[in-house]
Every structure is written in structure tokens, then in C-alpha cells.
């Protein structure tokens, strides 16, 4: 190949790459946002999760008897049950989800288990429909990567948090592969979560790095 045609070929490669890469990036973005966990796979949420270490998570959350807390994207109520134990009889848990099937499943489960301190709520993707200024803590466990408009949702949650309330985000690391959990394409990086939270009016106060496949971040609201 003559030198001129090599340069021409390289030029064409650069042009093609600059046109196709943004399209690929957009596709990846679309892939990871706004796809709630399919209810037909609901039983997977009930499988044992030795990797989740919920007791250790609860220790770090330091929830007090009588606290009011929310499990945003409760699914089958996995975290809601731990929260219910932690807040005790005088506390309250809102177990919220945007899918009717999840809400129905969790409602049935808490009734079967005789749990009295948990209210199941059907929310909307950008609005969990929780009372304003009421929560000591809001937890999003394994939900963030499914959320379509995370900043809008985090702003709604902020309105429901008390001024010193905490937002806890636990989600799948995008830098560690696992044979289970969402695809790498769907995962949201810890940096992206932190940037969204800042945009929504929070600052990060803690990062607990003991989970192998998840980041575990705690935020507070910036004073207005
Ligand atoms: C993978 S499941 C995890 C459920 C549960 N937190 C757990 O760890 O087992 C994610 C849940 O988040 C819910 N979800 C997705 N987007 C949501 C949103 N914007 N607000 C509330 N829930 C949402 C889905 O319907 C689904 O039930």
C-alpha cells in the first residue's frame, strides 16, 4: 500500500470510530437504565445470598429502635425484613417498589410473617410516594442500576428524609465481575452514583468497602 493510501485508511478509521462509538455508548446507557427486575424471575430474589452480608450491613447502618426508614425498590422485601427487626415495634418501615407484582409479593410475605411495623407502598419511578421530612434512613439495595432517572429519584427521596437522615446506596460494582447479578453493561460505577447524588443535593459521608461485589455508600443531605 502506498503511504498516501495508508494515511487515507487511517483517516477513514478515525471517522468511522468517532461516528460509531457514541452510538455504542448510547446503546450501553439505554441498556442499563429503566429496566426493572422482571417479576417472572421473582424467585431469584429469594435465593440465599452468602455474598450480601446483610447482618454486617445492618451493623454499619446503626438504626435505632423507633426509627422510620424506607426500603426503596424492595422487590420481595429482602432488606425490609432486616430493617423491620432493627426499628422494632415502635419504628416504621416503608417497603416501596414500582412494580405491582413486587408490592403484592411483599405484602403477602409480611402478612404471613405477622410483621406489623412495615407498610408496603406502590411508588412511581421518580417518586416513591413517601411522606415529606419523615425518614431517618432510605436504603436502595441492588436497585440503582435499574433506575431510569436516578437524579430525579434521589431528589424525591431527599424531600422525604429528615434534615439529618441518611441515604444508603448498595449496588453492584462495575469493576468486579461475578457469575450472578446484572450484566457488566447494566452496572453503574460508584463514581457515577456519587456524581448523581451530588447533583441531587447530597454529599458522601461513608464508604464501607467490605463487600466483594458491591459498593456500600452513605450520603447525607447538603444543608439548604
Ligand atoms: C434487583 S431487585 C432488588 C430488590 C431488593 N432490594 C433486593 O435486594 O432483593 C430491584 C427492584 O427495584 C425496583 N425498582 C426499579 N426501579 C425502581 C425505582 N425507580 N423506584 C423504586 N423501585 C425500583 C424493581 O421493581 C425491583 O423490584
Description of the structure:
The structure is a single chain. The chain is built from 6 helices and 7 strands. It folds into 2 domains: 32 residues; 185 residues, Rossmann fold, CATH 3.40.50.150. The chain is globular and about 40 Å long. 38% of the residues are buried. About 10% of the residues have low confidence. The chain has 224 residues and is an alpha/beta fold. It has a 7-stranded mixed sheet, with helices on both faces. The protein binds S-adenosylmethionine. S-adenosylmethionine binds next to α3. The site of S-adenosylmethionine has 21 residues, from α3.
Which helices and strands appear, and what pairs or packs with what?
Layout lengths: L2 H30 L21 H8 L6 E5 L5 H10 L4 E6 L2 H13 L5 E5 L12 E7 L8 H11 E12 L17 H10 L2 E6 L6 E8 L3
Parallel strand pairs: 1-2, 1-4, 2-3, 4-5
Antiparallel strand pairs: 5-7, 6-7
Bound molecules: S-adenosylmethionine.
The site of S-adenosylmethionine has 21 residues, from helix 3.
Alpha-carbon distance between the two ends: 65 Å
Low-confidence stretches: 10-32
Per CATH, the superfamily of the largest domain is Vaccinia Virus protein VP39
Mean pLDDT: 89
Total discrete domains: 2
Report the count of strand segments: 7
Fill in the CATH topology of the largest domain: Rossmann fold
Task: Report on the biggest sheet.
Answer: 7 strands, mixed
Number of helices: 6
The share of residues in extended strands comes to: 15-25%
Shape: globular
